[in-house]
Each structure stands twice: as C-alpha cells, then as structure tokens.
Design goal:
Elements (H helix, E strand, L loop, with lengths): L2 H38 L4 H35 L1
Length: 80
C-alpha cells in the first residue's frame, strides 16, 4: 500500500482513539452539569423536563459516538 494511504489510516486511527478517550468523560461532564442545574437551580417545572431530556440525549449521543468510533476503528484495522 502507498505511504500516503498508510498515513491516512494512521491519522484516522489516532483521531478515533481521541474520540474513544474523550466522548465518555465529556458526556459525563455534560450530564453532571444538567444534574447540578436540576438539583440546585431555581427552575420551573418545564425547565426540569428540558434538562432531563438534555441528559437523555447526551447519553444517546455519547453512546453513538463511542460505538461509531469503535466500528470505524474495527473497519480500519481490517483494511490495514
């Protein structure tokens, strides 16, 4: 395989490793932020529902990012 193709695979692999390392803590910080706003913020009942929905969406998007990154890493390792 040409060197530039190998370098592109290495770049993608390294970038996806960063996503695997940063997605779970980033999602945890966002969920903690919304939980703190629910617990200690002066919110109206409608605002609490918005924060709970944002927490749920954060869990979903973090799982999607983590899964997609793992899947693409698996595909890249297959073609190397």
């Amino acid at each position: 395989m040409p060197d530039f193709i190998t370098n592109i695979f290495d770049l993608l692999s390294d970038g996806l490793k960063w996503i695997l390392y940063l997605a779970p803590p980033g999602g945890a910080f966002v969920v903690a932020y919304h939980a703190l706003l629910i617990k200690h913020g002066n919110l109206e009942p409608g605002d609490v529902d918005k924060h709970k929905k944002a927490m749920r969406n954060t869990f979903i998007y973090t799982a999607i990012a983590f899964s997609a990154s793992g899947l693409v890493t698996l595909l890249i390792s297959y073609f190397k």
